[in-house]
Amino acid sequence: MKNDILMLKYGEVVMKGLNRSYFDGLIVRRVKKLLEGLGSFELQYAQSTLCIRGADGADMDEAADRMKRVFGVSSVCRAYSCEKTTEAIKAAVTENLDELLGDAKTFKCEGKRSDKSFPLTSPQLSAEVGAAVLSARPDLKVDVNAPDAVLRIEVRDKYAAVHGGGEKGAGGMPVGSAGHGLLLLSGGIDSPVAGYMMARRGMTLDALYFDSQPYTGALAENKVEQLAKRLSDYSGRIFMHIISLTEIQETLMKSCDERLFTVLLRRFMMRLAEMQALDVGAGALITGESLGQVASQTLHAITVTNAVPQKLPVFRPLIAMDKDDIVHTARSIGTFDISVLPYEDCCTVFVPKHPNTRPTAEQVAAEEEKLDVTGLTNRAFETRRHKKII
Amino acid sequence: MYFDNAATTVPSGAAVRAYTEALGLFGNPSSPHAAGVAAREALEAARAAISSHVGCRADELYFTASGTEANNTAIFGAFAFASRRTKRIVLTDSEHPSVEECVKRLEAFGAEAVYIPTRSGILDIDALAEALTKPAALVCVMAANNETGAVYDIEAVRKAIDKSGCGAILHCDAVQGLLKHADMKRLLKCADTAAFSAHKLHAPRGIGALKVRAGLRLPPHIYGGGQERGLRSGTENVAGAAAFAAAAGEYTAEKLLSVKAVRERLVKRLSEAGNVGFNVPPKHIDGILNISLFGIKSETALNALSVQGIYISASSACSSRKGQSRVLKAYGLEKAALDSALRIGISPYNTVEEADKLADALLTARERYGRI
């Protein structure tokens, strides 16, 4: 086993009570899944921290990267472990000074011991290690107020670890701790972010994509698969369901008031989404709607689409977010570059020139009167296909 | 049914046989032992065969891994060769990205690009002559356009360069042109350098070639062990070269006639149906037929056919991920024609019966899904 380790510090789950071990177990399961293919690792959990130790040949760089995608983890820290003796700690520090301090010119040490039987107090330990660093690298200076780097020494129950500070983890709650949701996934920027945010709160995901063959093509579907794949890097496996809206869109185009086209279509989407969600046992629908972003996302439009699902709540995690913030998240999770590929999706194929931004329940009901809503919905539902995205 | 032969072609039986047989010649052509010599002999036999189709000497032909690489080698090489004198590059406004992007890259090194219009698929020879009143390092004019099939008048370009005395090297991207037009061999003789690719001729991908006129010494684009007389290092792809030669050998005059027959059938059927624009330059290869199927968006028509197992192209495969076609804009198409443009790539393996089926499928798709 190597001496460099990864320390995953848990976030919100540490506040859980008697069911704490359930949440911890979910994190460990996700960690194990993400470490697959990177070599052999030993996991050791204590004091709200998961210590990951790689065998020789294990890819610790990639492992550290992947651990930043584990929900429930507040920070990921690359550290060097050693025996719990002052000498061993000093050796671990001086042997790895370049990695620990980088090109810093000033530093300070911060000792912390959770094992109170350790012979030195935290300030004593900091002073000892600081002196060792100075004798190894006389060019460095101590600055306790604004150092370039902070050298942290943790004396824990089973081992000691030294590191230069952790990186922010993915936060949130472990995947699987908050039920199962069906994400309405288009090829756009918003819906993948919405899925990410709900997965971050612990939801596992299925995704529903609406195609409009032949108005949309294989490339558009492939793009959505790529988005689901990127999302699954965070959320774990996703089942993607594909339902064709072609007949519904053509019928709406032919029979209904063009200004209400989008909102009527979205109502069909909600009907189909609820059917699909119930079919797979999902407990919520998730959409990427953001208030006022487009005509179908005004308060009036959301009111009439929200009225459709009878049994399930609709989660709209982006409802109060600005587009800039959504784009920022999309970039950070790596979905943005896929979302901006230029293939048409079902929402861009038929777009009314002057959509009604203040539709009412009565207007919508009058239009739907003209249609065989049940027949159209059932026939569309019959077109569904499924793909497993890992 | 495959009608996207300008994007790539299915490897022919002869090409696959030649490829598999040559895989048995596993020696490194640079090795002096018998296995190496056998591989070298196969490579040189392929070179001789292909050069006879190109109309050049065998020692003027260099193998590359693709047509794109051949274009890159020629353009960067010619620019390095001639740029001390001038940094001007003259090219058409409808070159393939593997030519145009090289020129754009060279602009970062001080190159000045001058674009010559190709409206309606005709090279504006007066604009070219005007551009050549000043010195130029390089002139790039493709042999056959990859979206419209236009055959540009390389002979006139040669004459214009010679008459101007500008001393430019004439590079010709002949990836779509080689063996696809009766005049091609004669036209290609006018080029100083010319790029070819095997997979447009029913050979596999991974093999291309560059003709460099004898006496013109280009600096290499890829350095290493000095293969291909120093111009293109890298252990030679003997099997690819053998397949290239075999496929080229099959591209006879009868094959061109068969392509022509399929094309004429399509044109007839679609003309009868009406409301179809034929984006056909006066001089063209028969293997590329560009149409505007007014009333249905290109992408919708492509998808509607794709689900039936009929494959065509909305524009060139190399630019289909980038939106509307720059080449068709240069051709002069208006929005309605651009939005409904389709490229049908015909090969000798397509039949007249297939042409009927394709025409039926296109017209049915328009009737069923047309809405613009």
Q: Helix fraction of chain B?
A: 40-55%
CATH superfamily of the largest domain in chain B: Type I PLP-dependent aspartate aminotransferase-like (Major domain)
Overall average residue pLDDT of chain B: 95
The multimeric state of the shown protein is: heterodimer
Total helix count of chain B?
13
CATH superfamily of the largest domain in chain A: HUPs
Biggest interface, chains and residues, is: A-B, 11 and 15 residues
The level 1 CATH classification of the largest domain in chain B is Alpha Beta
Biggest pleated-sheet summary of chain A: 9 strands, mixed
SSE order of chain A in H/E notation?
Answer: EHEEHEHHEHEEEEEHEHEHHEHEHHHHHE
Poorly predicted residue ranges of chain A: none
N-to-C CA distance of chain A: 30 Å
DSSP helix fraction of chain A: 40-55%
Protein architecture, described:
- The complex is a heterodimer of chains A (390) and B (372).
- Chain A is of the alpha/beta class and 390 residues long.
- Chain A folds into 2 domains: 4-168, VC0802-like (2-Layer Sandwich); 180-389, 3-Layer(aba) Sandwich (Rossmann fold), CATH 3.40.50.620.
- Chain A is 41% helix and 21% strand.
- Chain A is built from 15 helices and 15 strands.
- Chain A has helices at residues 20-35, 60-67, 86-95, 97-101, 122-136, 190-200, 218-235, 246-255, 261-280, 299-306, 323-333, 336-339, 346-349, 361-369, 373-382, and strands at residues 4-10, 41-46, 49-54, 73-82, 106-113, 141-142, 149-155, 160-163, 167-168, 180-184, 204-211, 238-244, 284-286, 314-315, 385-389.
- In chain A, the strands form 2 sheets. In chain A, strands 1, 2, 3, 4, 5, 6, 7, 8 and 9 form a 9-stranded mixed β-sheet that branches.
- In chain A, helix 6 packs parallel to helix 7 (218-235), helix 6 crosses helix 11 (323-333) and helix 8 runs antiparallel to helix 9.
- The longest helix of chain A has 20 residues, at 261-280.
- Chain A is elongated.
- Chain A starts with a strand and ends with a strand.
- In chain A, 43% of the residues are buried.
- Chain B has 372 residues and is of the alpha/beta class.
- Helix content of chain B is 41%, strand content 12%.
- In chain B, the strands form 2 sheets. In chain B, strands 1-7-6-5-4-2-3 form a 7-stranded mixed β-sheet, sandwiched between helices.
- In chain B, strand 5, helix 7 and strand 6 (193-197) form a beta-alpha-beta unit.
- In chain B, helix 3 runs parallel beside helix 4, helix 9 runs parallel beside helix 13 and helix 10 (298-306) crosses helix 13 (352-369).
- Chain B is globular and about 65 Å long.
- Chain B starts with 12 loop residues before the first helix and ends with a helix.
- The mean pLDDT of chain B is 95.
- The chains are: A alpha/beta (390), B alpha/beta (372).
